[in-house]
Amino acid sequence: MGETQQRVFITGAASGLGRALAQRFAQEKARVVIADINDGRAGETVAEVTAAGGEALVIHCDITDDASVEQAVATVVEAWGGIDVLINNAGVASAGTVTDTSMEDWSWMIETNLLGAVRLCRAWLPLMQRQRSGHVINVASAAGIVQSPGMASYNVAKAGMIALSETLQNELRGFGIGVTVACPSFFTTNLMESYRGPSTGVRDMAGKLMKRSKLTAADIADAVYKAMENGELFVFGHGEARIAYHFKRLLPGTFYWSTARAAQKMFGNLVELEPNADKQKK
Q1: Would you state the pLDDT for residue 153?
Q2: pLDDT at 54 (0 to 100)
Q3: pLDDT given at position 251
Q4: What count of Cα atoms within 13 Å lies in the side-chain half-sphere of residue 245?
Q5: Nearest CA to 139 among 120, 115, 113?
Q6: Which run of H or of E encompasses 90?
Q7: First and final CA of the chain: distance in angstroms?
Q8: Dihedrals φ, ψ of 89, to 5°?
Q9: Coil vs helix vs strand at 10
Q10: At what angle do helices 152-172 and 116-131 cross, to 10 degrees?
Q11: Which of 165, 114, 109, 110 is nearest to 136 (CA)?
Q12: How many CA atoms lie within 13 A of 6 on its CB side?
């Protein structure tokens, strides 16, 4: 990214992975925009960014609102002239099948976890294209690869983030702008504070998996930073997420058979499954 002081815009930077990313860039003496709707927590992130050696600018930004995003961009352009790194991190959590998730919750999920990133890209990319440099980091999830049963809207939104990132890579390479998409598995964060869905089951399981993870938000943030520096499109952090990605690519029949079987066990609707395609080929 060069030796000049990076200007970094991070959505959802007041807590969780967003805060960890702000701290990681601050270690490189970056100027970090903490864009969030939680002003109190944003102030806490400011203190940590400053302590790590960076410079912070807090902006109240609702990524689901066009006017809020436009105002945030205008404020940063006036203060710093633009940005070098855009990190679309803000997101919410949900659970439920395709049919039992309400249309209201479908809209809420897609608007926040996918269209929020699209909105920020549309606002910032023309400026980055004119300067012919920069990097876009989109925070997706292993859920966008695996599509576990009972997490329908979350899976779809995160798969959309992966598709958005791959599209951006194709569209932006000629402008000297890199793209990285993060697809971590579970790690301790406050994502479940925004959770919508069944009060038990998926929520309890997610909490257990978060606590069981050996990686922290700081570990994921460091992996993301290194992937950006190396010009890598995908970064996983967790070994199981990387394995799932390659498993799906190399043995799709077995992959889909195993996930369908998991869904059957979860919902108790056991029927005879056709042999998976990979075994049929042998």
Answers
A1: 94
A2: 97
A3: 77
A4: 19
A5: 113
A6: none
A7: 48
A8: -110, -30
A9: strand
A10: 10
A11: 165
A12: 28
Q: Whole-angstrom Cα distance, residue 35 to residue 49?
A: 13
User: Which residue positions in the chain have pLDDT lower than 70?
Assistant: 1-3, 186-214, 238, 266-282
CA dist., res. 271 & res. 180, Å (int): 40
Any idea which residues carry the catalytic annotation? 154
User: Dihedral angle at the C-alpha atoms of 80, 85, 91, 97, nearest 10 degrees?
Assistant: 150
Q: What would the two tokens of residue 128 be?
A: 């980055």
Q: Which two tokens stand for residue 122?
A: 């549309």
CATH class for the region spanning 7-250:
alpha beta
Supply 162's token pair: 């992966």
Which amino acid appears at position 67 of this protein?
A: A
What is the rounded CA–CA span in Å between residue 55 and residue 35?
Answer: 14
Query: Hey, what are 41's tokens?
Result: 């927590």
Q: CA-to-CA distance for 185 and 194, rounded, in angstroms? A: 18
User: Do residues 188 and 213 lie in contact, with contact meaning Cβ atoms separated by under 8 Å?
Assistant: yes
pLDDT value at residue 188: 47
Between CA 226 and CA 21 the distance in angstroms is 12
Dihedral over Cα of 82, 87, 93, 97: its sign = positive
CATH 3.40.50.720 occupies which residues in the chain? 7-250
CB 144 within 8 A of CB 206: no
